[in-house]
Specification:
The complex is a heterodimer of chains A (456) and B (133). Chain A folds into three domains: 11-110, Rossmann fold, CATH 3.40.50.20; 139-209, 2-Layer Sandwich (Dna Ligase, domain 1); 215-454, ATP-grasp fold, B domain (D-amino Acid Aminotransferase, Chain A, domain 1), CATH 3.30.470.20. Chain A is built from 14 helices and 20 strands. Chain A has helices at 18-31, 70-79, 96-104, 114-121, 123-133, 149-159, 185-200, 257-274, 304-311, 315-323, 402-415, 425-431, 435-439, 446-454; strands at residues 11-14, 34-40, 54-59, 84-86, 108-109, 163-167, 176-179, 205-209, 215-223, 229-241, 244-250, 278-287, 290-297, 340-347, 359-360, 363-365, 372-376, 383-384, 391-399, 417-419. In chain A, strand 9 (215-223) and strand 10 (229-241) form a beta hairpin. Chain A is globular and about 60 Å long. Chain B has 133 residues and is mainly beta. Chain B has two domains: 3-38, no CATH class; 47-130, Beta Barrel (OB fold (Dihydrolipoamide Acetyltransferase, E2P)). Chain B has a four-stranded antiparallel beta sheet, with no helix packed on it. Chain B starts with a helix and ends with a strand. Classes of the chains: A alpha+beta (456), B mainly beta (133). The interface between A and B is small, with 12 and 10 residues. Chain B: It comes from Gluconobacter vitians. Chain B: Residues 39-77 are annotated as: Disordered.
Amino acid sequence: MREPAVSVPRRVLIANRGEIALRITRACRLLGLHSIGIHSEADASLAHLRLVDETICIGPAAASGSYLDAARVLRAAELTNADIIHPGYGFLSENADFAEAVEQSGRTLAGPTAAIMRLMGDKISAKQQMRRSGVPCLPGTEDALPTDLSEAQTICDAIGYPLIVKAAGGGGGRGMRVVMIAADLRDAIETAREEAGRAFGNPSVYAERFLQHPRHIEIQVLADRQGNAVWLGARDCSIQRRHQKLVEEAPATGIDPLAIAELGERCANACTLMGYTGAGTFEFLYEDGAFSFIEMNTRLQVEHPVTEMTTGIDIVREQLLIAMGDPLSFTQADIRTQGHAIECRINAEDPESFRPAPGKVQSWRAPGGPGVRIDTHLYDGYVVPPNYDSLIAKLIVHGTDRTDALNRMHAALSEMQITGIATTTPLHLRLMNEPGVREGGVSVHYLEALMRKSAP
Amino acid sequence: MTFLEDLLNDLPELVDRMRRHDVRHVSLKNGAGALALTLTPAPTSNPEQTPSISYPAKAEDTPVPSPEMGVFRSNGLDATHPVRSGEIIGFVEAGPLRLPLTATADGTLGPALVGEGGVVGYHDVLFRIHPDG
């Protein structure tokens, strides 16, 4: 195993909770790093807090007063003398102001610089950067739509319909409107602007061609501070509901590996060109054999384990090594993907209505066997608080091929037991046997259509 | 700057000089403002290394939580010291703020559960107060 490049112990503050905090703790322990766990008042019994070297309660249960409060997280870093902050995903992980404050405090964020976060956080500047790097984008506006609606209409008519109006500073489906015909454009722009201003503090919107039945394909990258960048294969995350992914897999089935490889090379080159560091994900829509860039996530993704399972690379460990200044220990030529991996997100939600279902876990029995991995912070008696995201476990399997992986997932889901609260497990069990899922290559609308069809 | 702000800035040096010259009490006046300082005994070990003290909590004891995440500063009160609810029994430094730690009940103060200069979390219990009688 490669040792850290520096001889002095490095202190890592884990600025997150739940399964991802446990995942980062494990990587710290693997590297012999001093780990510091922060938590809210509601989270004092989180599983990773038993494993870290130091803990500190940073605030009340509400995320706005704890995990989302940049000043508190930074104060915790100062009090505990942390020199690296790993933000995980969600919360402050893509907050450029936080990244800048971390830089100004003399600490290192396990991620890209604040400047890169800002570049990629604004969807318009991100698309401009992608075009400069040769990464394929949808036909659409180069800049924000003008405030003059007549001018905006002329520009959008030239793009053609259907199109989608999107918030420049947005994500997660907010500030987004699909326009099927020209007559609906003005209302859509005004509504999207209003929503974007409210949600993101930036009312700028842009327009691009709307794909009707795309798949969601993404490329995982890693880039070090020495200018080396690699891509680690593609993931298919098309099974989603309201833009929230539910099942992810790697590799992306039914797409020419040479086309994926060409796209991956372009993504890695884009990282080098912009000076990207750390782990990141380029997200694309894929329809009719063409990829179109949607956005770049400048952080670790929930679904990173499927890439780890197919490449054998520990992405979180690499993130920490990069933050410590180490160069990547492998080149693109060293990366091989093997077999097929699937991840099911187990959420504390009603499997039909998707309503959050917090509460006490009476008993938890993890599945096992060859090729089965579970990333979770659950234990018997754990109380899922109502204050945060409902993700409580990620069940990941690795098989020799896609059919083998689907079969292993079904078996693992059947074996897994979580009692006391409702979870999405029954839905996943059903999905593993659905003809569309068995065949592969479904679009991002598949799950919602399936749920509508089976609604009483 | 106000008299009080000036004084807070100079406090570490003032305390240091009081210790060196064995001065226990100082009274300061400036216009409408006045302040009396009473020096507590100096800590006997490296404060950063002081481990949390294990103290068996009793059901009837009232906990005194830290008002914020920060650094604990003792007020020099001994364990078994009688306190009244609202009395200042220590401080927590949270960034530039020095927040008072006040007794949450009348009774007898137990020993501090964290050493002088120790890092404390939000609402960490720093003392327990045993009811009198």
